[in-house]
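Q: Sequence in, structure out?
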Amino acid sequence: MCDVLEIAKSTFYYEAEEQPKEEACTKAIVEIFHKNRKAYGTRKLKATLMERGLIVSRRRIGRIMREQGLVSTYTIAQFKPRKSACNEAKTANVLDREFEQMESKRFVVSDLTYVKVGHRWHYVCVLIDLFNREIIGHSAGRAKDAALISRAFATVEGDLSQIQWFHTDRGSEFNNHTMNQLLKTFGIGRSLSKKGCPYDNAVAEATYKVMKTEFIYQMEFRSLHHLELELYDYVNWFNKHRIHGSLGYMTPVQYRQATLIKVV
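A: Exactly. Output:
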């Protein structure tokens, strides 16, 4: 009969499988997701559901995940940088990649990074002393501007005139009247990376990579105040408790104190 009707035998013997009910499917997905440290995406969820005898498409799993607010820890919100004018100042690269400094506060480097707070991007600025990799100043805010950097300088302990050189990339936020006045007031020299060359500010770049891994990606910030509190706590740990391979496995504070004792 199949030959006469030109129908495949598989079609004749096919029995449609009943689709799992939405409620049972949702319950299973939520359970599997939380049981596996929130690390599973649609592929692994589909495979685990199949082991339980539930045939569910990845599209359906994705829809249920969105409805239940389930986001894999491997899914990180991507920051879309806004194009800003480059600092075209003729300031030279005085640092010239001499990242190993033998004098405290001779060169302080800085940069900005982004942090997700609720559903909005915020920014963090840190000031790093190349002498012992210590974060000597920090700030957080909603805007990527000179005020953010000025607040970081305001947290530096001691006299700002002890800083000899301030090195950054050519971001426009580092090129404005406010910054120029601050540096001029305290007699701080200026050094800029070459245009489009992140290697000229490698220590700042590396520090932010560490901060993202150890701090930013580990937290969910509810507000700017929450971010500021957690940033203060992390900086305190970074300076006083975190050992650094480049410092002979001492903390930045231990390295600074040990060096001072040798000088005395």
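The first strand starts at residue 107 and ends at 117.
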